[in-house]
């Protein structure tokens, strides 16, 4: 057991666990942040996606021992029902969530993508950006639309009034 | 050993890391992006006593051009490569290959040093590094040696790297103005796929239409390690690369590869695909060249 | 008929609907996009223990002994259980309980459970599991369904390897073929598709202080799970409380028992400590049910004018080691094997056969996916031979409402096939197909466009209980709690339930709280399967609503001191007819009823209509109601490699009535992409009884990069028995796309792929063979 200090969703936390425990398990079991899901455990599905220092990564392939002093954002840090992020609002409005188990991973990846652009992405650009997230329910059509809608709202909000 | 009992240390410098690797009493494994290493640990394979986490050794994460070539730090991520303007201009084949690794999350995590060290025959960046004549610098606490990439791999998952060594630099030869490259991959789908066959191609073009002065072709996933297609390479410079020439060159490729059958594809199909991907790649390159 | 029932019916017929037919946002959307939605596998308890299942080492072997002593001695083990520790019946299975909870004398597939462990950590549970010593005597596995049927093959079960044999015969098949101008005969092989729900099987078991059991486990029929648990534990079912909603995806894969009985057994042996099991993807691949791989031989006879006159089908389904719903899947396959057509002479039979290839069970489409390719491919071949238009041939042969189907029964429910085909003919992709086909992105690529049509039964068919029930309760704040046991597995049925309730009760959707998947709070309402949940649950709510309106009317009349007949339902309140100033709202009514200690909960029950006469030996055919569908698709094939992209899909379902356009599109888009996965990518490979495909690295489901443009054009045939005219579509949305893609590949390349999935390698090989044939014919 070792103790690790890092930031999750803006708050300093310290966690005591074996250094080989995955960050995903730390988030879910020790910090009660269960938005991030385990689906494949091997980096194939994106359900556990979080932001590590701004980059989207699979938290099932990050070890607790690698988290010292890092800054992490999970889906809960992007927004909660009381104050949803535009990406979350767009996914909800466009019907881009069905069973919802993959959705947190999509939200985090989409947020990271939208942080990196300042225009409304084409279908192909959204597809490249979200290729690492598997969904079995939606057929992805409404997810593409939701990301574009979010980009549009983000543009409008940024535009000088 | 229980996974929960494995220790993890994070050396603060390359020197400290190399010092740790001297210790022969314990098994160490270097942990960079984790996209292969952690998966192996979860599968109960190659479990070390101690993980050496090198993810934070930022001194090994760089892309810069120097006299003898472009230096790429082993901890450079695939995303770093994709975004590098220098590489987009002077190593487009490597950029293309890095874009084909998994998907965004794995490109953010995975490193070029990790891709080399894992030595998967299907590793996407490796054929690209072959055609860019990469030199791999291996360092131990007392020594440094540089290995040409074609001597680096000894079999699937096997390299000349010793237990006390780590990759500390990768030097590639930049493509010149008239040099163009492409990476072609056949996977079961477009994202998150392991190559069934892949090929990296670079061509140095002359001043006449579709005149190729020389070229390099490296196939992945069709043998225990990467296969340079020397016969096809020779054919590249025999005349203008028109459609007939492209078909002739591609038609020769299947004889140079030695694939196996597995759950992803049969050996016979892989052979045919070596030709198909070379044909497709050359067509696409020539279209790009014509339209430049 | 009471006035209230008439009111609701009137409501259903009127054009001005407030909620029904609108894209009401999913009620669970915000919780899902923020990660606040708790799934059963998300819970955590401080004093918990981890459960783990020991799976069989061999696909087929005798068990000579099980030694658990070393596992029990593990310092962190809490309990180790084998078949000896099962208090009740050691078996489960929806129809035939032939699958042991824990194997005693024989294992029949590598997914078989042999022992259970609970321990202080997952790691300790895994260690303890590995310390259990099982003495096996391996047997020669049965790996091919047809070989399993041969006399002398090793027997998996006491009654032999043929679990079921169903037949449907109508007309005179020999005469039909004699009259035929063309006869087509082909054999088709289908993949062992995995549901690949994103949430693997898992959940919690807890023995409560009062001795009752609480099971929290994503599932598709909690009320039935309760009975299956009770049977194994020899426990009064009323002492078991199952929470089974929401699911992180189901698609039929959580219809059968997954881990519920293991959780219950372990919970009885952990001194009240909650026990968790959550399968890794690898264990889910091995232990979870799959779609039945079929070998289907189809022989179709047709006349020059395009009339189909004979269809002979022989289907063999590999159900793996246990029956689960294999018998029903095979029966449904045969019922649908001649398509939504009126072929006068049919002779169809299906075998459901045991092998040692894992376990197969329910999966979206339920056998129809596997058989629809035969008749649809043959119609396209007929079109090619005769030069007739493939859509015209389908229109010519499709039965209408009131016609006799190929099965020989008169279809009295709504039928939208022709309408879907007319939409297909008029859609841009079809009209301009030659133009689109010419727009290939690179010269070695070829495009093809094709259409196919199919259908799928709604509900259970004859012989299986099929009913829905709903409760509506007035809450303190004037809102309504609507309880329907049918689980949320991703379809958004809860949102539709809220819409139907709000429409019937004339309140806001926000004022409806929906409870699903809770065996204490909700009445048994059947499964979330068989395309039945919107239809059944919606109808049950529409049946309960008049009872609530009666209750509200009585109370309003008392409060306003007028007679009941003077009370009228208005938006969010009740008024005295003609005088809006005299009104009471639902909160006031609650207070009145509360004062009087009166019940504020009403029920509605709905028995699905069914045909009177079962076709002899058909296993439950015909259904009363079917959903119909046509797909038009465009593919692009890379002829150098065989890689195939589906570029454009037009999905035309006959939905009866659209209840929620956004939800319908979601089903249609998801179904299309799952159909693409089935046709082009997905297969769990098993060799000699061992899984070659182990996880998501090799099990290829479509990513967002494979998704095409999908247009959904619904056709409304107004099904009288459904809520507001609606019927189920959740399965049919992935069916005709399968033969449509196959036909489009043929249109593009001339190659026919009868062995799915049509991987790049298979397509490449077929193209090469087509080239060879062309050379030979020259």
UniProtKB/TrEMBL annotation, chain A:
GO molecular function: 2 iron, 2 sulfur cluster binding; metal ion binding; oxidoreductase activity
Presence of keyword Metal-binding: yes
Transmembrane portions of the chain: none
UniProt keyword list: 2Fe-2S, Iron, Iron-sulfur, Metal-binding, Oxidoreductase
Pfam families membership: Fer2 (PF00111), Fer2_2 (PF01799)
Domain 2Fe-2S ferredoxin-type: 2-78
Coiled-coil residue windows: none
Record keyword ATP-binding present: no
Database matches in PROSITE patterns: 2FE2S_FER_1 (PS00197), 2FE2S_FER_2 (PS51085)
Name of this protein: Ferredoxin
Organism expressing this protein natively: Virgibacillus indicus
Lineage start: Bacteria, Bacillati, Bacillota, Bacilli, Bacillales
From TrEMBL, chain B:
Boundaries of every FAD-binding PCMH-type domain copy: 1-177
InterPro entries: CO_DH_flav_C, CO_DH_flav_C_dom_sf, Diverse_Substr_Oxidored, FAD-bd_PCMH, FAD-bd_PCMH-like_sf, FAD-bd_PCMH_sub1, FAD-bd_PCMH_sub2, Mopterin_DH_FAD-bd
Taxonomic superkingdom: Bacteria
Keywords of this entry: Flavoprotein, Oxidoreductase
A single GO molecular function term of this UniProt record: FAD binding
Protein name as catalogued: FAD-binding PCMH-type domain-containing protein
Organism: Virgibacillus indicus
Phylogenetic placement of the source organism: Bacteria, Bacillati, Bacillota, Bacilli, Bacillales
UniProtKB/TrEMBL annotation, chain C:
Taxonomy, superkingdom: Bacteria
Residues annotated as domain Aldehyde oxidase/xanthine dehydrogenase a/b hammerhead: 34-140
GO molecular function term, any single one: iron ion binding
InterPro entries, sorted: Ald_Oxase/Xan_DH_a/b, Ald_Oxase/Xan_DH_a/b_sf, Ald_Oxase/xanthine_DH-like, AldOxase/xan_DH_MoCoBD1, AldOxase/xan_DH_MoCoBD2, AldOxase/xan_DH_Mopterin-bd_sf
PANTHER family: XANTHINE DEHYDROGENASE, XANTHINE DEHYDROGENASE SUBUNIT D-RELATED
Protein name listed in UniProt: Oxidoreductase
Organism: Virgibacillus indicus
């Amino acid at each position: 057991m070792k103790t690790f200090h890092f930031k999750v969703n803006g708050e300093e936390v310290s966690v005591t666990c074996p250094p080989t425990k995955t960050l995903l398990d730390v988030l879910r079991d020790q910090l009660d942040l269960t938005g991030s899901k385990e689906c494949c455990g091997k980096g194939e599905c994106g359900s556990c996606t979080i932001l590590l220092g701004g980059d989207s990564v699979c938290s099932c392939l990050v070890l607790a021992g690698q988290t010292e002093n890092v800054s992490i954002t999970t889906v809960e840090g992007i927004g909660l029902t009381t104050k949803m992020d535009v990406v979350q609002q767009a996914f909800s409005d466009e019907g881009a969530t069905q069973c919802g188990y993959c959705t947190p991973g999509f939200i985090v990846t989409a947020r990271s993508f939208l942080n990196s652009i300042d225009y409304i992405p084409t279908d192909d650009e959204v597809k490249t950006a979200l290729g690492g997230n598997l969904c079995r329910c939606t057929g992805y059509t409404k997810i593409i639309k939701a990301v574009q809608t979010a980009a549009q709202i983000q543009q409008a909000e940024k535009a000088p009034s | 050993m229980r996974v929960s009992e494995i220790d993890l240390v994070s050396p603060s410098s390359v020197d400290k890391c190399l010092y740790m690797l001297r210790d022969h009493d314990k098994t160490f494994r270097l942990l960079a992006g984790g996209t292969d290493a952690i998966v192996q640990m979860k599968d109960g394979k190659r479990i070390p006593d101690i993980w050496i986490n090198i993810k934070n050794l930022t001194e090994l994460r760089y892309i810069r051009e120097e006299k003898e070539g472009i230096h790429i730090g082993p901890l450079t991520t695939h995303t770093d490569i994709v975004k590098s303007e220098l590489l987009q201009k002077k190593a487009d084949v490597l950029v293309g290959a890095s874009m084909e690794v998994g998907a965004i999350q794995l490109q953010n995590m995975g490193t070029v040093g990790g891709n080399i060290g894992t030595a998967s025959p299907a590793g996407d960046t490796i054929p690209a590094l072959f055609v860019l004549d990469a030199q791999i610098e291996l360092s131990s606490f007392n020594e440094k040696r540089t290995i040409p990439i074609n001597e680096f791999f000894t079999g699937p998952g096997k390299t000349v790297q010793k237990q006390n060594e780590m990759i500390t630099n990768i030097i590639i030869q930049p493509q010149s103005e008239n040099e163009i490259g492409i990476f072609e991959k056949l996977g079961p789908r477009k994202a998150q796929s392991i190559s069934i066959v892949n090929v990296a191609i670079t061509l140095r073009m002359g001043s006449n239409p579709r005149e190729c002065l020389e070229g390099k072709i490296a196939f992945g996933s069709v043998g225990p390690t990467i296969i340079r297609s020397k016969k096809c390479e020779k054919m590249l410079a025999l005349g203008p690369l028109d459609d007939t020439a492209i078909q002739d060159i591609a038609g020769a490729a299947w004889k140079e590869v030695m694939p196996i059958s597995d759950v992803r594809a049969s050996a016979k199909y892989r052979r045919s695909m070596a030709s198909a991907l070379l044909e497709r790649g050359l067509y696409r390159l020539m279209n790009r060249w014509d339209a430049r | 008929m009471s006035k209230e029932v008439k009111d609701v019916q009137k409501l259903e017929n009127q054009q001005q609907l407030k909620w029904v037919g609108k894209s009401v946002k999913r009620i669970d959307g915000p919780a899902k996009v923020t990660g606040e939605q708790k799934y059963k596998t998300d819970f955590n308890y401080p004093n918990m223990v981890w459960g783990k299942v020991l799976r069989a080492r061999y696909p087929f072997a005798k068990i000579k002994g099980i030694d658990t002593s070393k596992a029990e001695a593990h310092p962190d083990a809490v309990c180790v259980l084998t078949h000896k520790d099962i208090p009740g019946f050691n078996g489960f299975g929806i129809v035939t309980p032939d699958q042991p909870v824990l194997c005693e004398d024989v294992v029949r597939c590598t997914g078989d459970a042999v022992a259970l462990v609970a321990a202080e950590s997952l790691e300790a549970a895994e260690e303890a599991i590995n310390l259990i010593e099982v003495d096996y005597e391996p047997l020669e596995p049965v790996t091919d369904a047809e070989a399993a049927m041969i006399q002398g093959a090793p027997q998996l079960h006491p009654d032999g390897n043929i679990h079921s044999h169903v037949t449907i015969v109508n007309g005179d098949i020999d005469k039909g073929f004699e009259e035929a101008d063309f006869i087509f005969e082909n054999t088709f092989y289908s993949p062992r598709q995995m549901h690949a729900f994103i949430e693997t099987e898992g959940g919690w078991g807890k023995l409560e202080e009062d001795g009752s059991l609480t099971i929290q486990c994503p599932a598709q029929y909690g009320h039935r799970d309760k009975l299956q648990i009770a049977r194994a534990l020899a426990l009064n079912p009323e002492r078991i409380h199952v929470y089974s909603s929401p699911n992180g995806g189901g698609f039929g894969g959580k219809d059968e028992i997954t881990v519920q009985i293991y959780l219950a057994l372990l919970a009885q042996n952990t001194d009240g400590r909650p026990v968790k099991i959550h399968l890794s993807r690898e264990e889910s691949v091995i232990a979870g049910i799959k779609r039945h791989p079929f070998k289907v031989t189809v022989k179709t006879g047709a006349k020059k004018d395009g009339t189909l006159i004979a269809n002979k089908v022989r289907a063999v389904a590999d159900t793996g080691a246990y029956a689960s719903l294999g018998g029903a899947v095979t029966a449904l396959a045969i019922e649908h094997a001649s398509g939504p057509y009126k072929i006068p002479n049919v002779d169809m039979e299906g075998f459901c056969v045991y092998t040692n290839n894992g376990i197969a069970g329910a999966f979206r489409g339920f056998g129809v996916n596997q058989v629809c390719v035969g008749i649809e491919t043959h119609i396209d071949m007929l079109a090619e031979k005769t030069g007739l238009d493939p859509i015209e041939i389908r229109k010519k042969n499709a039965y209408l409402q009131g016609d006799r189907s190929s099965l020989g029964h008169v279809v009295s429910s709504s039928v939208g096939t022709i309408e879907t085909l007319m939409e297909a003919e008029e859609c841009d992709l079809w009209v301009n197909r030659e133009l689109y086909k010419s727009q290939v992105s690179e010269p070695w690529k070829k495009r093809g466009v094709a259409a196919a049509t199919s259908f799928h039964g709604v509900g259970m068919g004859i012989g299986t209980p099929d009913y829905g029930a709903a409760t509506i309760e007035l809450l303190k704040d004037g809102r309504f709690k609507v309880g329907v046991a049918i689980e949320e597995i991703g379809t958004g049925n809860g949102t539709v339930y809220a819409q139907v309730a709000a429409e019937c009760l004339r309140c806001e959707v926000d004022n409806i709280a929906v409870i699903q998947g809770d065996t204490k709070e909700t009445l048994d309402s059947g499964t979330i399967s068989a395309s039945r949940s919107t239809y059944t649950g919606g109808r049950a709510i529409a049946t309960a609503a008049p009872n609530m309106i009666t209750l509200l009317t009585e109370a309003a009349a008392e409060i306003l001191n007028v007679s009941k007949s003077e009370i009228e339902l208005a938006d969010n309140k009740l008024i005295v007819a003609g005088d809006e100033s005299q009104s009471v709202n639902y909160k006031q009514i609650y207070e009145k009823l509360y004062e009087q200690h009166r019940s504020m909960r009403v029920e509605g029950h709905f028995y699905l209509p069914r045909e009177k006469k079962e076709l002899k030996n058909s296993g439950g055919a015909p259904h009363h109601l079917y959903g119909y569908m046509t797909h038009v698709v465009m593919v692009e094939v890379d002829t150098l490699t065989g890689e195939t992209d589906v570029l454009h899909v037009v999905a035309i379902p006959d939905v009866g009535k659209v209840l929620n356009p956004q939800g319908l599109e979601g089903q249609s888009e998801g179904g299309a992409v799952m159909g693409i996965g089935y046709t082009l990518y997905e297969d769990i490979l098993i060799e000699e009884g061992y899984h070659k495909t182990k996880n998501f690295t090799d099990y290829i489901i479509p990513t967002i990069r494979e998704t095409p443009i999908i247009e959904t054009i619904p056709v409304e045939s107004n099904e009288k028995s459904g809520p507001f005219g609606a019927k189920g579509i959740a399965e049919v949305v992935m069916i005709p796309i399968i033969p449509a893609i196959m036909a489009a590949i043929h249109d593009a390349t001339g190659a026919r792929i009868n062995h799915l999935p049509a991987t790049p390698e298979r397509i490449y090989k077929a193209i090469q063979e087509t080239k060879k044939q062309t050379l030979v014919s020259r």
